[in-house]
Amino acid sequence: MRITSIDIVGYGKWSDAHFNHISDFQVIFGENEAGKSTIMAFIHSILFGFPTRQQSIPRMEPKNGGPYGGRLTLEDTPMGKVIVERLKGKATGDVRIYYGDGQVAGEEKLTEIIGEIDRNTFEAIFSFDIHGLQNIHQWKKKEFERYLLATGTTGSDALLKTAEILQKKLEALFKPSGRNPAINQQLKKVKDSQLAFQEAKKQNAKYELLLVGKEEEKARQTELQEEKTAIRVELDTLNTLLELWPIYQEWKALSEKAVDLTEATFPPDGIIRLEHLQLREKEWQNQLIQLEERQKNLINKNNFEHTAFFAENEAEITYLIETYGAYNERELQQNSLEKEINYYQTDAIQTPMKWTKELDQKVLRIKELEQLNKQQQHDVQLELKLTQESEEKLQQKIDKIETNMWDNKRFQQEKEKINSKEKTPLTKPIVAVAIFLVALVVLVIFQSIWSVAVVFIAALISVYLLVTSKTSTPNSNQQILAFLEQQKIRQEWQQLLSEMDIIASQIAQLEERQSKIIKSQYDYQSELNHLFDTLAINELPDENWEAKVQTYKEHSEKNQLAAELTLKLEPLAEKQHSYQLRLEKLAVPIEPTNIEEKISFLRQGLLYYRNNLTENAKLAEKMEQVTMQLNLVKQDLLLVKKEKADLLEQAKVNNEDEFRVAAMRVKQEQQWRERLILLEAQLEPDKRLALSQFSAQEVIKEKELQLEEKLRKIELEQENIHASLAAKNHEIATLEEGGTFAALMQDFYSEKSKLQQMTREWTETKLALQILQETMRSLQEGKLPKTLALASDYFNHLTNGNYTKVYLQENRIQVESKEVISFFPEELSQATKEQLYLAIRFALIDVIHKDFPLPIIIDDGFVHFDSARMVQMMQLLQRRKSTNQVIFFTCHQETRKYFSSEDIRVL
After folding, report:
1. Could you give the dihedral angle defined by the CA atoms of residues 683, 686, 689 and 695, in that order, rounded to the nearest 10 degrees?
2. pLDDT above 90 covers what percent of the chain?
């Protein structure tokens, strides 16, 4: 199970906190008071419930009164990925479990996810801090058994408590030499009342007969019960025999086979001894072969038969030997040159022209011309595009102005009207004043009625003229403003037309430049075609012309290099040929396969020829030494062969193959005997004796059926006796009614009944305690040795081999050092005690991992460790993360170097 996400709604100092993507080995780093222990307590609370107010564990409710609780996301659980949410509600909180398929469950399903484990056991094994590592010296065998039992069955901690309660209850009910226990006191009361009751019973004869009959039937009932018990025991024995029958059959077959086997005379460690002798024999034979070869070579050296040849050709041989080194160097140079020539000629294509610097310059010039044309073409096209866009914008402005502009005819007409109005602006007022003055003159001259009428009429005319002249003035102003506006528009229009002329001129210039560029492009293409024609490339130039020319250049340069190397090769070949001719003219007395062998023969022969006289004495001395060594090796070889023959004789075989077959047969017989011993350990002698009385398994089954039938008849007879006893008890009860006798009898049976009830209670308690102890013992016997063995391995690793064993002695934990010295935990250093406690924890985790694959949570548990201990601990935790997720809280900077940045979460 892995915790992949922690979401705290409200817990202690944390509120609305989220920790996602928690890895298999997650380090949560934070200073003191950062909230590390609070997160650890939050995990405990979500999995096992909020602490109640009666517990000593703080509840960590938010101080601001906000929401309380949160959720954990768990993966790799028996239910897959689940989210466990616990919020404030009842005392331990309200739990909701969200499955991956959308289903929701309550707290009753939590045990299916984390297993049958309580908070105390989880904190004792999987979750701890520095304080939890300091009490190892207090552990005894009882604590070991408690945790092993606690992880072995459901409600196991309650079993331990129940065992203690039952033991106290037994001691309170009865003690063999006690007075105060209830059964001891009740026994005294029963004895006293029985004496009084027996004295009263003697007064009634019939009563005595009934009692005699009752006792006889009780005796018969007891007899039947004993017989019934014996039959049940025999049935249990038969069932056991049926289960052991296959083992008995195998034991019987092996026993019969063992009787037929004869005692083997095979020597001990025979195969190993034979292989050792074979190896020694092979070594001596190899030495023998080598010495014989050396002897043969020495004999051959004494018989040199080519003395005349070397004496006649000593000078030529000396020259050939001395110049052979130069010949080899030339051979190497020749091979190297041939390889280079072959390398250049392998992929090279023959080119009609030799590549020159002029061709390089020409190609460079064509490339520069190509780049220049492309750049100029790009610049002209860009300028032409921008100029055309400007032309379109000006044309749009002209079109817009022309929609609001008068045509030339209307403009000229309006212009003439404006000019005429400006010349006669005071005509009507002057005429009016003149008319009025003429009328006044007529009135002054004639001074008659009609002259008054003339003056009146003249005044009217003057007034009219004055009024009409004033009313026409506003209309004239509007016409002038409209004309001025049109005149401004026309000036702007003319200016735009001038700009259009300039842009048209620029476009013409750009088109002319484009034509020149096209001509330059044609010149570039012509020059490129000429280059291809010069190089005799039978293709038209395209965009990849440069790659084709480069390929042509590479092939041409390879051909040139091959030609130059060929020129160097020719003088070397002539010298080699000359040397070979001189060597062939020399009539060598052997037939060598190559020049090296011939030169080797000449060198050795010449050396021998020159040193022949001085070597003879040395060869004789060496021959004597080799002969002595050869005789010694032959003697050793004979001894080895004799030892091997003795070994075969001990096994009573003729050759090595028969010896190996005998070894296999002895090994097989040994396996049979070991199996027979194992079967005899499983079959006790009384069981073998009982099984030998039956010829087949069916006979046992038949006897089992017979006993079951007999048991049925006994049970039927017991029922009849029980009915008869009931009738006699009724008659006795009738006789016992009334008087002192009845009171004494009632008192006796009352006290006896109380005693029986107490005895039954004691028996039930004792039986329950025995069953409970047997259950705990069976659970502990398989786990305790395994746990101690694993703890020893972990402690040995953590202490770098300084301590080799963890065991229980005198009901306490002890450890053994590599010097075989025992120590109690309190005798160890603080850091070593903590290592011991960690080793025991990890051993417990390994033992219960199958049933409880829970994460390990550590809160700064290694503060007393030095650097070496810390490295070993971190290596162990790194290995553990593959089986258990590890969440490590720490405030120490130095621990961060053991982890990658992805595995560290800083609070």
Report:
1. -70
2. 6
